[in-house]
Amino acid sequence: MVRKRRKRLKPLVKLIFFILVLTIVLIFVYKSLKKEDDNIKNEEKYTLKFDIVDKKEEDEENIEKTFEEGMSVNDFKKILLQKENYIKSNDKYNQVLYDFDRKLHYSEIENILYNINNSEIANVEIIGKSEDNRNIYGVEIGNGKDVIYIDANVHAAEVASTLFLTKYMSELVNGYELGDKAIKSALNSVKLAIIPCMNPDGYEVYNFGVESLNNKNLWLYQNKDNINFNLIKSNANGVDLNRNFPTQNAGMYFKGNTLINNVSLEKTTSTSKYFNGYSVGSESETKAAMYFMIKHYRNTYAYMNMHSQGRVIYAGKPNLSTEFNNLSQKFAKNVASITNYSVHGLSSEEVGEGNDGSVTDFMAELANGFKFSSKTGRLYTDRHINNSCKLTYFYPVITIETLNIWTSDPDFFKNEYYDRGIKNLFNSLLNKKI
Questions:
Q1: CA 206, CA 225: separation in Å to the nearest integer?
Q2: What's the angle, vertex CA 426, arms to CA 423 and CA 427, rounded to 5?
Q3: Running DSSP on this structure, what letter comes out for residue 72?
Q4: Is 184 helix (H, G, I), strand (E, B) or coil?
Q5: Do 411 and 328 contact (CB within 8 A), yes or no?
Q6: Given phi > 0 = left and psi -120 to 50 = alpha, else beta, which region is 432?
Q7: pTM score > 0.85 for this model?
Q8: Cβ contacts of residue 151 below 8 Å, gap of 6+?
Q9: 21 falls in which pLDDT band (50, 70, 90)?
Q10: Distance of alpha carbon 254 from its chain centroid, rounded?
Q11: Helix and strand tally (H, E) in the chain?
């Protein structure tokens, strides 16, 4: 009897075991699917809204040559899905006393930013990494809806504006923490969104030498014996970031035009030619800046891209709307009334000559309501020159070039900040007087 009972139980045990295994598998699959669903929901929570279209411009026959690949739609979507990465604040704010008394290593600027982040009025976000793995920061100061957006140091040798912005942000937060009523009132009306240094590897190399690169395999280090670092513009990969943005006409030139003479189609150690990259949006620094721009452009009140050569202001884009150009040129003249810099209008801007893809091109095209094309890998409207496109977001876009010499000497920066009107310019922007 015992043997027969065991034989009867054997199939039942197998069935129970099978059901148990199946249950475990189903639970695992359910949890995996739920986790994936949660991840999708989290991604949607952090998604930056931006239209992607499956279209090309109608007048593509006007293009003579496209010499850069477009940005892949997957790479663009990664920017849209990038999660906010604010630095946590656990310490008390300490007054910043820097006043252009010396050069600052990038790590010292980082320390100042971490301290600024300790104030309740400021939020500092790590928005990306440089090619040499340095953090790139986006700083938000203020509680207002209207955003004053400023970025600087896209070109390696143009380091002055990084310190201008570091100084001003410190002064602003110092004043807020000391209870300055005017500053508190202004910061309740506006928000500053600032990338103080778009090219941290270039900043460090220009100020402290190529040995400051951590990765000795990077192009800049490998070609150090043939590069004049006094005039360097590129990032550590040898790419001019200010021509690497996926704007409508980036990496191409039109029929009837020739490639402008300062553009190189290959990486170069020349001091008069610059390489745009083999594809637009290729560099990590470019992607970081795009993320912060897309995050803030809809609320932007005024945009200023800061360089450090010439004491001039550039305003207007020949391929964009008259309304936008009039707004930008008016703003440029107001800035010039404070700094006494020269204003250059549309006649000084190239389009369709291989020199497109700048930071200001990107921010200007966002203002004019451009979308991203999955076909071209660039921002899109129906024509490459579209002076009738609608100005969707009403903010001016200018490039301001400070100083009149190439230098890393902070004494020159101090003079420009106080005596040439840079501090007054920042204050006027803060108080919306221009």
A1: 15
A2: 85
A3: P
A4: helix
A5: no
A6: left
A7: yes
A8: 194, 195, 196, 198, 289, 292, 305, 306, 359
A9: confident
A10: 27
A11: 12, 15
